[in-house]
Design brief:
alpha/beta; 3-stranded antiparallel sheet; single chain; binds S-adenosylmethionine; Rossmann fold
């Protein structure tokens, strides 16, 4: 329902201002989803101007999500907290995990209430899944949220997902400390799965500018800095690499286009 230019969810009372673009909806547009509005599509179009194969990069991130979640399930992880989960896409964390281990539990957390509005549809069909609206920069609030604690038992290993979300945290918000705060609350056998925009100097500057101008958030960082988020964890082979190179199912041709090099990530295990 759209009333007075404001999206009114039929699931919750949340009123979402659709005249302001949102990260979740711009990303949805990149993935050819249906949950975006003209303001979001305008930012999408600007991004395609500065990175014509941006949609491919978004798909690479989702493919990495599938391979990473499969890996963690194979390691015995049966509960996941997906931070900055975004709008439901083709294959979401619970679908990937539950295909292998149906008892897998997933708590989705996103700051954007539109994610909850759409996530409720998933909830109705799945009692092992929950969707929470929260700011992941407040780890205590997230981990003590009653919907999260009802599903996730932090005395058992957990898979922490931070995919394409830490690059929306400014330097002065201490991204490394934030990641650490979550890891510190987990037990041995837990995994951190994190992907992040990679800084390629002048090549990525225009993309960063569009994100900062239009969405106020988007910070490209070096592979070294991204790797430092895994400090204290055992970094799983092949380490922090460009998304398509993380345990690929098919060879990736060189030279790598920017879509391949745009986002890098990896998985660390707590021993
Ligand atoms: N994780 C998904 C993936 O990789 O496919 C979605 C990534 S999307 C680029 C980033 C998501 O992070 C958006 O849905 C946005 O709303 C969410 N986000 C940004 N800042 C956040 C915050 N402080 N707390 C929770 N979610 C946040």
């Amino acid at each position: 329902n759209v009333r007075d230019g404001v999206f009114v969810s039929t699931w919750i009372e949340a009123r979402v201002d659709i005249s302001v673009p949102s990260i979740a909806r711009v990303y949805d547009a990149l993935l050819d989803g249906k949950d975006n509005f003209p303001a979001d599509r305008a930012v999408h179009d600007q991004l395609i101007q500065v990175i014509p194969d941006g949609k491919t990069a978004a798909q690479y991130n989702r493919q990495a999500l599938r391979r990473g979640v499969e890996f963690m399930v194979e390691q015995g992880v049966r509960q996941f907290i997906d931070l900055g989960s975004g709008l439901p896409a083709a294959e979401n964390t619970h679908q990937v995990a539950q295909r292998i281990a149906p008892e897998s539990k997933v708590a989705y957390v996103d700051i954007d209430p539109i994610v909850l509005a759409h996530g409720r549809a998933l909830l109705a069909e799945n009692r092992n899944t929950t969707v929470v609206t929260a700011d992941f920069r407040r780890p205590d609030e997230v981990l003590n949220n009653p919907d999260v604690t009802a599903l996730i038992d932090l005395s058992k290993p957990v898979g922490l997902l931070m995919l394409a979300v830490v690059h929306h945290v400014h330097d002065n918000e201490n991204p490394a400390g934030l990641v650490r705060a979550y890891v510190d609350r987990t037990v041995s056998g837990s995994h951190l799965f994190l992907t992040h925009f990679v800084d390629h100097g002048e090549e990525t500057k225009p993309i960063e500018q569009v994100l900062l101008n239009e969405l106020t958030r988007g910070r490209f960082r070096s592979i070294e800095e991204i790797t430092s988020y895994f400090d204290g964890l055992e970094l799983i082979e092949p380490g922090v690499v460009y998304n398509p190179l993380w345990r690929p199912t098919e060879p990736v041709a060189k030279p790598y286009p920017l879509a391949v090099r745009l986002v890098a990530g990896g998985i660390g295990r707590k021993s």
